[in-house]
Amino acid sequence: MIVAFSVTPLGVGEAVAEPVARAVRVVRESGLPNRTDAMFTTLEGEWDEVMDVVKRAVEAVSEVAPRVSLVLKADVRPGTTDAMTTKLQSLEHHLTAD
Question: What pLDDT, in 10s, does the model give residues 41-72?
Fold first, then answer.
């Protein structure tokens, strides 16, 4: 499965980079394929391992924030691997096709 999620610390003021970095660190240390951009972190793996990483990311932020908001979108497609890469390759193929 692929999960795109965003963890937002609430009650810590406007500067949220440090609390968000705590979540991204958990994701990167998980060893699962992942990408982070300005809005979401995308993570790929099996259901239980992905959800465990999301939970631990939220917990890491909650250590420094009194409240945490989580937005999550999932693409559940059993039997598919490396979808983070292949979906983009397919898109790029269609963008360059005449």
Answer: 999 999 999 999 999 999 999 999 999 999 99
- For 36, other C-beta atoms within 10 Å of its C-beta total 15
Q: What is the CATH number of the domain that holds 83?
A: 3.30.70.930
Map residue 22 onto helix, strand or coil. Answer: helix
Report the distance separating Cα 52 and Cα 45, nearest Å: 11
What is the count of structural domains for the chain?
Answer: 1
The percent of the chain in helix, strand and coil, each rounded to the nearest 5, is 45, 25, 30
Q: Which residues make beta-bridge pairs with 67?
A: 10
Calpha distance 5→60 (Å, rounded): 14
pTM reported for the whole predicted model: 0.88
